[in-house]
Amino acid sequence: MSVRARPTSPHLQIYRWTVTMAMSILHRMTGIANYAGMALLAVWLLAAALGQDAVTQVNYIFGSWFGQLVLFGFTWSLVHHMCGGLRHFVWDTAAMMEPDQREAIAWATIIASVIITLLIWTLFVWMA
Amino acid sequence: MRESVITTETIANPKSRYGSANASTRHFITQRVTGAINILFLALLLFIVVRLAGQDRADVVGLLGRWWIGVPFAALIANVAIHMRNGMRDTLEDYLAGSMYRLAMLLNTLFCLAVALLGAGAVLKIVFWG
């Protein structure tokens, strides 16, 4: 018996992008990035516990242009995930849930995370 | 990956299990409590990294070796590991079920345990043995 093809659910890409949707995806992506990034912190701390040779090697890798790029991304990822978490704390109280309000705090999340990250790197890396 | 077809009836049935029926409320609360504590972790991490980035081992020991910095930092790393495991569980529950889910959760637990034991262990080693 031949079976007619079943209707399939629309693929992700047919939906119009909204900022709340983008921030929801970014929250999960930055969470996963932070998950992996914690290994970098563990490696650095482990090197410091082991000895100067290990610290020198880790400093060389983390201090290279690629290492700095990864650490810059890690900084933004941590800050963004924290801002997203704060937004969820607001939503947990059932506040800011109207369409314009939730769009506003979603925009606030990304704007704040970029500004805070740039501030951290400007103050403590580029101008230090 | 799903072991059974999910219908609207399955979803509407309060007895069907999405995530753990026993533990999901605890996971929800754990994630928020550890998440709030992680703000302290990030503040301390920023302070420590700004002071120690690119520095020698002696400088690291000089700062982290103070028990009132090292011990809270180690505790906060353990807290991060709990948040990591719980957050990854959320993701795994969305995409996997049954034995694949359990295997992925096992790997998740091992990774988070490794981060906690190695990260916090390294800090505590510096605190107590230099």
From TrEMBL, chain A:
A Pfam family this chain is assigned to: Sdh_cyt
Protein name according to UniProt: Succinate dehydrogenase cytochrome b556 subunit
Subunit structure and binding partners: Part of an enzyme complex containing four subunits: a flavoprotein, an iron-sulfur protein, plus two membrane-anchoring proteins, SdhC and SdhD. The complex can form homotrimers.
UniProt similarity note: Belongs to the cytochrome b560 family.
Organism from which the protein derives: Devosia subaequoris
Residues bound to heme: H81
Entry annotated with the keyword Heme: yes
Top-level taxon: Bacteria
Cofactors demanded by this protein: heme
CDD domains: SQR_TypeC_SdhC
Membrane topology term: Multi-pass membrane protein
GO terms for MF: electron transfer activity; metal ion binding
GO biological process: tricarboxylic acid cycle
GO cellular component, one term: membrane
Record's keyword terms, sorted: Heme, Iron, Membrane, Metal-binding, Transmembrane, Transmembrane helix
From TrEMBL, chain B:
Transmembrane residue ranges: 33-53, 65-82, 103-128
Single GO MF annotation: metal ion binding
Pathway: Carbohydrate metabolism; tricarboxylic acid cycle
Annotated localization: Membrane
Cellular component aspect of the GO annotation: membrane
Keywords: Electron transport, Heme, Iron, Membrane, Metal-binding, Transmembrane, Transmembrane helix, Transport, Tricarboxylic acid cycle
GO BP of this protein: tricarboxylic acid cycle
Top-rank lineage group of the source organism: Bacteria
Cofactor field: heme
Subunit and partners: Part of an enzyme complex containing four subunits: a flavoprotein, an iron-sulfur protein, plus two membrane-anchoring proteins, SdhC and SdhD.
Official protein name in the record: Succinate dehydrogenase hydrophobic membrane anchor subunit
Organism: Devosia subaequoris
